[in-house]
């Protein structure tokens, strides 16, 4: 398994002016009310943008195998939520990620929304292009938001999970990672986490590099990352695996395919409104009743 060895350096994230919103997939696109949520994830995304409903939002469908259809679906959804100033950026190749018109549109955007699909397609199209350079510069220097769901969320991290069968991932060597877009350092995101039973594969990622925080998000759940804080949004939960206190494992002693043993890994569960401090690596649980007082 390949994974970048990175330390707990939060400096770049702390200086980043923009925000990153990662969504576990299957977010509510119909604006349905939810008994555990005052607003949908997409409404929160719009409200976090610089001009709210007047913001320019570019929908990026590069991860999708049906980019036109996916773009139309999200255009319809955002308009229903009152965000009319939207467009769809369809980039199927690296050449299209270098097209001046596409870069010009990104420069004028207040936010991008990156759809689901294949995260490897997304990173192979965008990585190292001028489009990617402009995207990262806007996040560092402007009041700008990158939002990604499913593949768009998984690709936001510096190292991303590429594949790993959920039923086999507790065994050494069953998880494959590769480089992501690197928008968020020292975190690996996994999506559709509860429904597809993916917690086991996150164990191997974290024990292989305990300096990386493993984050698994349930569907219709999101985390908004700004500076050194992550806030949970939506009706589900996020599972956080912190390996810094691991005291022992058999990772180096067993062959590929053998079951893993890990001692003293820390697990947190986050639900809506909870805040995780990435500087102190501590969770603050927020009771929704307390917010009403």
Mind sketching the topology for me?
Blueprint: H1 11-15, E1 19-23, H2 41-48, E2 57-60, H3 67-80, E3 86-89, H4 100-108, E4 111-114, H5 119-126, H6 130-141, E5 145-149, H7 151-154, E6 159-163, E7 176-179, E8 187-190, H8 199-208, E9 213-217, E10 221-226, E11 229-234, E12 238-242, E13 248-249, E14 262-263, E15 266-270, E16 275-277, E17 282-284, H9 288-292
Parallel strand pairs: 1-5, 2-3, 2-4, 4-5, 8-9
Antiparallel strand pairs: 1-10, 6-7, 9-12, 10-11, 11-16, 12-15, 13-14, 16-17
Helix pairs in contact: 4-6
Key attributes of the depicted protein:
293 residues; alpha/beta; 9-stranded mixed β-sheet; 4-stranded mixed β-sheet; 9 helices; 17 strands; disordered N terminus
Explain what the structure shows:
This protein is an alpha/beta fold and 293 residues long. Helix content is 26%, strand content 25%. The protein contains nine helices and 17 strands. It has helices spanning 11-15, 41-48, 67-80, 100-108, 119-126, 130-141, 151-154, 199-208, 288-292, and strands spanning 19-23, 57-60, 86-89, 111-114, 145-149, 159-163, 176-179, 187-190, 213-217, 221-226, 229-234, 238-242, 248-249, 262-263, 266-270, 275-277, 282-284. Strands 3-2-4-5-1-10-11-16-17 form a nine-stranded mixed sheet, sandwiched between helices. Strands 8-9-12-15 form a four-stranded mixed sheet, covered by helices on one side. A hairpin with a 2-residue loop joins strand 10 (221-226) and strand 11 (229-234). The longest helix is centred in the first third of the chain and has 14 residues, at 67-80. It is globular. The chain starts with 10 loop residues before the first helix and ends with a helix.
């Amino acid at each position: 398994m390949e994974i970048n060895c990175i330390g707990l350096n939060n400096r770049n994230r702390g200086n980043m002016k923009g925000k990153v919103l990662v969504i576990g997939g299957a977010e509510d696109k119909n604006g349905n009310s939810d008994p555990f949520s005052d607003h949908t994830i997409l409404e929160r995304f719009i409200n976090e943008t610089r001009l709210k409903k007047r913001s320019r939002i570019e929908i990026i469908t590069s991860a999708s195998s049906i980019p036109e259809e996916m773009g139309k679906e999200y255009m319809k959804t955002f308009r229903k939520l009152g965000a009319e100033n939207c467009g769809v950026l369809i980039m199927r190749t690296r050449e299209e990620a270098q097209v001046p018109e596409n870069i010009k549109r990104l420069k004028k955007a207040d936010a991008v929304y990156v759809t689901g699909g294949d995260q490897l397609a997304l990173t192979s199209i965008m990585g190292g292009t001028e489009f990617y350079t402009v995207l990262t510069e806007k996040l560092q220097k402007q009041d700008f938001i990158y939002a990604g769901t499913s593949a768009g969320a998984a690709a936001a991290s510096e190292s991303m999970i590429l594949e790993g069968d959920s039923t086999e991932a507790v065994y050494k060597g069953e998880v494959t990672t590769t480089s992501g877009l690197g928008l968020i350092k020292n975190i690996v995101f996994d999506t559709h986490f509860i429904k597809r039973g993916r917690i086991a594969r996150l164990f191997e990622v974290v024990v292989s590099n305990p300096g990386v925080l493993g984050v698994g998000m349930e569907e219709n759940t999101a985390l908004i990352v700004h500076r050194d804080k992550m806030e949970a949004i939506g009706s589900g939960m996020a599972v956080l695996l912190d390996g810094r206190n691991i005291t022992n494992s058999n990772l180096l002693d067993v062959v590929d395919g053998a079951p893993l043993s890990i001692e003293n890994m820390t697990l947190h569960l986050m639900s809506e409104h909870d805040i995780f401090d990435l500087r102190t690596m501590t969770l603050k649980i927020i009771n929704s009743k307390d917010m009403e007082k």
